[in-house]
Amino acid sequence: MALSRVRLFQPHGEGTRLLPQGSRLVELPYSSLDEDDDDTAEQDPGVWYPDSPKPSPFSRCVRYLAFLWNLLFLLLGLLTLAVGVWGLLTKSSLLGGDRGAPLGSDPMLLFVVAGLGASAVSLAGCLGALRASPCLLRFFLGALLVFGGLELLGGLLLLLLRRRLRDALRDLLLLCLLRYQEDPDLQFLVDEVQRSLQCCGLESYHDWESNLYFNCSSPGVQACGVPASCCREPLQGGSVPNAQCGFGALALGPMAAAALLHTEGCGAAMAAGLRGQAGAIAAGAVTLLLLEAVGALMALRVLRDVTAGRVWQ
Fold first, then answer.
1. How far, CA to CA in Å, does 223 sit from each of 190, 249, 282?
2. pLDDT value at position 152?
3. What distance in Å separates the CA atoms of residue 2 and residue 254, rounded to the nearest whole number?
4. Which of 38-42, 121-125, 213-217, 230-234 has the largest mean confidence?
5. Is 14 helix (H, G, I), strand (E, B) or coil?
6. Alpha helices (H) in the chain, listed in sequence order
7. How far is CA 194 from CA 12, 81, 184, 226, 264, in A?
8. How far is the C-alpha of 129 from the C-alpha of 143, rounded, in Å?
9. Are the CB atoms for 263 and 105 separated by under 8 Å?
10. What is the largest CA-CA distance in the chain?
């Protein structure tokens, strides 16, 4: 005869369990910690379980600000990437055309790399703040830390190696003069520098004699000439710049050349311009670091709130 398990209550409130043993019942003490194999444990309704803390309005505001902040830099990164890709496609570098520099040495590749890096980091910040992902937030903070360290290292190198960097800049300008007709990017860069700083050549306009096409012994039409960006009045009374205004300028005397060209070299003009813009450059670098610091602080706050919420789950 099967016996069902019966809970007995003693006067003192202690339960007992009856189990069959042979032909008589044996009374065993019953413990409230025993559980049936087929039954699941249930929470005691008399016990209070605290709810997980809800984010404060300030925390929610920081989270939305972090999302919008990174969204702005994401758009800027995508714009930089689009400019780089447009430049590469325009010069047929990606298509293997005859124009433009090789892809590995094309200056527009810097825009592509910078755009990709900024877009990837900003996207991680956006998704980390939107989805409350600790992994993405930690990646975003690590990337900001690396970028900030590289910027500080670059600033220290600029301060410590100013003389060597000045010599490297001079060598770069000389290389631009030698490859003026060979690379559209260098040609555009040299023309913009000479036109904006009102200079010509590295030390003087005679530096263009080192160029194969502008040398006086060259058989071309540009022999003994300089680029039109060296001219004082490139329009010469018209509405379209005269590309031949500098032809034959190297064969002129100093007075005639000074009346036609900007005879000062670009090396001294660039050095003076950099010294004059040192404050603006420093302010821009500090502003960039502050922007990165603000983004890092907001990401840290969001990460702390996310981590605190997961502890209660």
1. 19, 9, 43
2. 87
3. 125
4. 121-125
5. coil
6. 57-90, 108-131, 134-160, 162-178, 184-197, 254-260, 266-276, 278-311
7. 103, 28, 15, 11, 10
8. 15
9. no
10. 134
Alpha helices in 18-103 (DSSP H): 57-90
* 201 torsion bin: left (phi>0), alpha (psi -120 to 50), beta (else): left
Distance CA 311, CA 313 (A): 6
Please tell me the predicted confidence (pLDDT) of residue 239.
64
The conformation of residue 28, written as its DSSP 8-state character, comes to: E
Q: How many residues does the chain have?
A: 313
- Pairing label, strands 24-29, 15-21: antiparallel
Per the CB < 8 A criterion, the answer to whether 127 and 119 are in contact is no
84 CB-contact burial (10 Å; exposed 0-12 / middle 13-18 / buried 19+): buried
Has this prediction a pTM greater than 0.85?
no
- Angle, to 10 degrees, between the axis of helix 266-276 and the axis of helix 184-197? 70
CA–CA distance, 43 with 263 (Å, rounded to integer):
91
